[in-house]
Every structure is written in structure tokens, then in C-alpha cells.
Specification:
This protein is α/β, with parallel strands linked by helices. The protein has helices spanning 40-47, 79-84, 91-104, 120-134, 150-163, 176-181; strands at 2-11, 14-24, 29-33, 55-59, 64-67, 138-142, 168-173, 185-190, 193-196. The protein is built from six helices and nine strands.
Length: 204
């Protein structure tokens, strides 16, 4: 469960969030929506422990997987090696498992390419595969469908729902359709906090 209570946080010296509270139960998904610069990324980073809040509390038990807006791949590793790097077990098993993630994301033919040889959208999918392979108890997604066409968004959403089953998912997006793909409860930005627009379970 992700639990945020009365969170206040600043970015660039300015307070962007004040008194923000939300809860994402295990197996549920919540989507943060609002204009650029309103604090969506700041809230995700605070949930990951990368930003220290000015006030309030955050409870995210266990391990956290984070998909940033920028892919942050290891440039000296191939796509399949980037995913395999977070897996435990025998090297050969890791490579097979990593390749399966890439295949599901439509990247089976690019598994031996280095990040510099991949488009931005392809790099983003590798980053997502790596986060899903890592596992953990919570999944944080900062605009995970950025740069993807409709078919890819559907495929990636299906992969997330399958591989992240049972986890709490908190994502940011500018597109309500993307929130719908994950069955997310939507929280809209209003007066330096995110407030619920609707509530529905992420898993059927």
C-alpha cells in the first residue's frame, strides 16, 4: 500500500504540493493528472524517497520500482542486459526471462541493441521492462506511455497489469485514456494537492 498524508513538498525553491493525501491499496492503481510543473513528478519522487518532503508522511513498504520520464538505461549494456541486470539467479535464466519481457513489449528484435541505437520510445519500453522484472511492492510510473502509439500503449498496459498484479501502482499522465488503460482512480491537481475525481479498482 502507498499511503501519503498531508504531504507538502517544494521544487526549485517553490512549494508545489501542500496538504496532499492519497492512498493506493495493494493491487490498485492511481493516476495523477494535472498541468506540467504542478508536482506530479515531485510526488512520485517523494514516494520513492528521492525527494524529502517539507511536511507530512509517506508510507511505501517494501521495494519500489520507478520508471522515470527519461529511460536511465546503462549505456554500456544491451537492451536484454539492461533488463537481466535486475534479475536474480543464473545468468542464462536471467537472459531468457529478460528476453521474454522484451518480446512482450515488442522489442524482441532489438534485444542486442545498445540504448544509443534505440529510439526514445524503445528506450522507454526497455526501462519499463526492467522495472517490471525488478518486482517489488510498489510501481511508480512517470508518464510511462510517452512517445508510444495506440497499439503499443495497449500492449504495454496489458503487460503492466499482468506483471504488476498485486502491487500498488502510482502513475502520472496528461491523458485520461492512459489512466483508463490501467483502470486507474484519477487524482486531479487542485490548489497544490491532488484530489480524487473517480474511484475504481485497478484489477477486475
Amino acid at each position: 500500500m502507498i499511503e501519503i498524508k498531508n504531504l507538502s513538498a517544494a521544487y526549485g525553491g517553490s512549494t508545489v504540493l501542500s496538504g496532499c493525501s492519497l492512498t493506493v491499496p495493494d493491487g490498485a492503481c492511481a493516476a495523477l493528472m494535472g498541468p506540467s510543473g504542478c508536482g506530479k513528478t515531485t510526488l512520485l519522487r517523494a514516494a520513492a524517497g528521492l525527494v524529502k518532503p517539507q511536511d507530512g508522511s509517506i508510507n511505501v513498504p517494501g521495494r519500489v520500482s520507478f520508471v522515470f520520464q527519461e529511460p536511465r538505461l546503462f549505456p554500456w549494456l544491451t537492451a536484454v542486459q539492461n533488463v537481466a541486470a535486475v534479475l536474480s539467479g543464473r545468468v542464462c535464466d536471467n537472459m531468457d526471462a529478460a528476453l521474454e519481457y522484451l518480446r512482450r513489449a515488442g522489442l524482441g528484435g532489438a534485444s542486442d541493441k545498445y540504448p544509443a541505437e534505440l529510439s526514445g520510445g524503445m528506450q522507454q519500453r526497455v526501462s519499463l521492462c526492467r522495472a517490471l522484472a525488478y518486482g517489488g511492492d510498489a510501481l511508480l510510473l512517470d508518464e510511462p506511455f510517452r512517445g508510444l502509439d495506440d497499439n503499443l500503449r495497449h500492449n504495454i498496459a496489458a503487460l503492466i497489469l499482468e506483471r504488476a498484479r498485486g502491487r500498488s501502482i502510482l502513475m502520472s499522465t496528461h491523458d485520461g485514456y492512459e489512466a483508463d488503460l490501467l483502470g486507474a482512480s484519477v487524482y486531479e491537481y487542485h490548489d497544490k494537492r491532488f484530489v480524487p475525481r473517480s474511484t475504481k479498482n485497478c484489477r477486475s
